[in-house]
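Many introductory courses stop at the sequence. We go one step further.
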Amino acid sequence: MTQPTDIRRVALSLAAAGMPVLPLRQGKTPFGNCRTCKNSACGDRPNMKAAGPCCCPAPCHGWAAATTDPEVISSPAWAPAWRQAAAVAYHPGGAGLTVVDLDNAAAVAWARANLPATRTVPTTRGEHWIYRGTMPSSNGVRPGMDIKSLMAYARWLGHGTGAMTALPDAVRALAVREPAAPRRASQGLTVPLRGRGGECPHRKPTYLDRGIAMGVQRITAARSAVHATVYRTFLAVLSTHGRCGCLTQAHVARLFTAAQAKGESPRHCTDAWANALTTLGL
C-alpha cells in the first residue's frame, strides 16, 4: 500500500518540475470544499486578495487548488488530505499541457489512426496522450475520450514513453461544438472604467500599450494560482492607468482574452476587475 509520505514525495517532485499538483481521494476525486467554503460561500475563487474571494489554505477547490509551492504542499493545512490521499493529480493546463484521456481500447485505436504520436502513459483501461500546449477541457468529445487541459485535473500515472509533441489542430478540433447563437462581445467586456477623463499624464501612448502587453504576458505565463495572477494584473493596470481615462474597452478586451485563454470565465474576469476597482477606490 502506498504511504502518504510517498504520495507527497511524488507531489513535491512534480511541483519542483513546474507541475501544479493536488491530492486525490480514493476513487480519483479531489477533496471537496471545507465547511467554510461549502456551496461557494467563500466566493469560490482561491487565493485572490480582494473582497469576497477565498483564501482557504486547504486543498478544497479541486483543480484550482493545484500548486507548485512546496511550502503549501508541505503545510499543516494540507497534511490531513495527504494522510487520506490515494494518488496525486496535476493541473495539465497549469503546466502548459493537454491530456487526451483514452478510456478504452477502441478509443486508443482511433487515436493511433487519427492523431499525431506523442508521449503516452498507460492507464487502468487505456492511455493518456500528452501534448505540449493548452486548450479548453471537454468531456465526451468521442466515445471513451476526454480532453483535460485548462480548468481540469488528471491523475499522475508516471512519466510515460515517447517524445512529447505540440498540441495539434486535430485535437483542438475534437472539442469544437456546433456554434451557438452569436453573443454580443459586450456581454463579457462591458466593465466600468471609471477614469476621470482628464489629460493623460503618460508621455506617450506606447506607455499604456506596453503596460497592457506586460499584463497579457504575465497572465499567459501563469502556471498556477491563475485567479490570483489575473486579479493582481488587473490591480496593477488600474493602479497605473485607472484614474486618467486612457483605458478603453479594447485594452480591457486584451486582458480578458488572455485571462479566458487560461480558463477564467467572463464572470470571473468581470468580478476581478470590479474587485480591483473597489480596492483602489475607483
